[in-house]
Amino acid sequence: MGDDFSSQLFAKTNVAEVLRGELARPAWRRETVAIGTSTDPYQPIEGRYRLTRRCLEALAAARTPANVTTKGTLVVRDVDVLQELGRVAGAGVNVSLVTLDEGVWRALEPGTPPPAHRLRALRRLVGAGVPCGIALAPVLPGLTDSPAALEALVRAAADHGAEWLWAGAIHLEPAVRDYFLNCLERHFPAAAARYERVFGAAGGPAAARYAPKRYADVLQSHIAELKTRYDLAERRRPARVLESSVPGTPSAALPSVKVPRQMALPL
């Protein structure tokens, strides 16, 4: 498989037309649509095809609420459509952000916008009246889960206008397990052995798909405390009509944040 998932992309160029047809069905009840749960809707190729934008326009025309989850800052391009969708049905954006550490970001999320850029995009959207939150998943044991790292990220989310934050411990499906473990071995060999004890070695049989329950429970408890401290909800509140459509402006330069990478929660 290698990096095929990021280098071989398939553009379904008629997706907006198909979506409009589905939304026009008499049985459709305008349930909230989740965009970006299986692949990022704002990969660089979206700049050429504009498929996500056209889907958002179709949802707005059908008065169907939606939530978008993305690592991509290109979402800011579509602020006008998100505003319209918010006015007629409800819209929200989950900015996917798992670390403020640029070393971890470069190694594990190549080709994605840097953490500071995603926070600026968050502030731009919030300034334009689009409800936003943070998707802090997966949390990576030994790399992004120290109390200091987690608090720095939650604090940054609140400072940039996030209304909610949800988090989850890592789990490795077969399609990505070997790729991820090989990446760890290459960039963070000291941490790789911990993962192999739980998930099995790359190329061998899988031991587990999910982090141990004890670890996940401790993590969720800690995240809950941080969300209470910084007044962040668990999920987006019920869809609401936006009262403002004033375009946002970029914020001042973000401060540099040094995030420690020690293991703090048990794996």
UniProtKB/TrEMBL annotation:
The keyword DNA damage does not apply. Keywords: Iron, Iron-sulfur, Metal-binding. Residues 27-147 form the Radical SAM core domain. One of its GO terms (molecular function) is iron-sulfur cluster binding. The keyword Iron-sulfur applies. Signal peptide: none annotated. It comes from the Bacteria. InterPro entries: MJ0683-like (IPR040086), rSAM (IPR007197), rSAM_sf (IPR058240). SUPFAM superfamilies: Radical SAM enzymes (SSF102114). This is Radical SAM domain protein. It comes from uncultured Chloroflexota bacterium.
